[in-house]
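Researcher: First entry.
Model:
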Amino acid sequence: MTQTRDEFEARLRRIGDERYHDKHPFHHLLHGGRCTPDQVRAWVINRYYYQSRIPMKDAAFMSRVEDPKLRRAWRSRIEDHDGTAENEGGIARWLKLAEAVGLDPDYVASEAGILPATRFAVDAYVRFVRDKTLLEAVASSLTELFAPKIHAERIEGLLANYDFANDVSMSYFRKRLSEAPKDVAFGLAWVLDHADTAEKQDAAANALIFKTNVLWAQLDALYSAYVEPARIPPGAWVPGTGLALAKAS
């Protein structure tokens, strides 16, 4: 049975309440100041891979969109991460965070040392957006509904607990506090407008569940490899490598 617009929106929001990665044990460690410097670095390195692929998945999405209005609305997402002449972009801001935690930004940008599970999860997300229906692709982006809360908690927790946290290193998260609500307002309205049958509503809800799984899987990989260091897989980042020269001495 097709749900009303309000019922379906409530269903989507429940998915975040139950499945968003703010509930993962790794985030509780990170935001509570209980991560070691190397665990923070591992998070920064692996999260970079996700950040770097966001504009790629958005470009893949736009390549299939025939409606110029939708392309115009979506284009800002690429600019928010890749940057423009006036805006350095989220990827550059993430590399400032990498430098702040003692990593060589060039090493992080090289994508060397990424956990295998991070690659699998993030690449699966890019393929999902590239290959699924436009409705499912847009619905998968609706984890942004829940992002401002986790960004605010992260800013507060990192500033309170880590010496590296300052206005420069937190600039990525502060910027997303204004960017994400704009994106999600459009995406949510688009999904609610186009999920007009029970079948489409199920597909959109499952797409959002898939995306929460992508985010959760990345933290599972981090927790397994670096909270219990003996389980770092071959080829993944090893603490003590990839550091900025000034920090490595």
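Researcher: Second entry.
Model:
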Amino acid sequence: MDKRKQIRVIPFPKQPVQLQLMGNGFLEILLAQDVSEGGMAVRVPHKFDGYDIHSSVEMVVSLPGYKPFKAKGKIKHLSASREAEGFFGLQFLQMDIKGKESLLNYVQKLASLRRMAG
């Protein structure tokens, strides 16, 4: 049983979701593997080796067709097998109302497009 409550969508390859992640001593520009209202999964080939990933992070999220927005969040560990492949979760903790609206609209739009295509 999946413990996530939110719809999770996978961005279209030609319309990636870009994420600038700023943490304690690091800055990464990543592409989201999947996106939900509560967070996203990213692939980090170096697995954040040598970085302090336990403090909160700041993000600038760029959804295709929407203005980029800032958010605060934290890095979540996924299963050991997913982490071995470099996958991590990012949980959103705080964002402004415009960012929330953009995120919700993006997820719902993608979910309905995927349903029509499926």
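Model: Note on the second entry: The helical segments are 80-84, 97-117.
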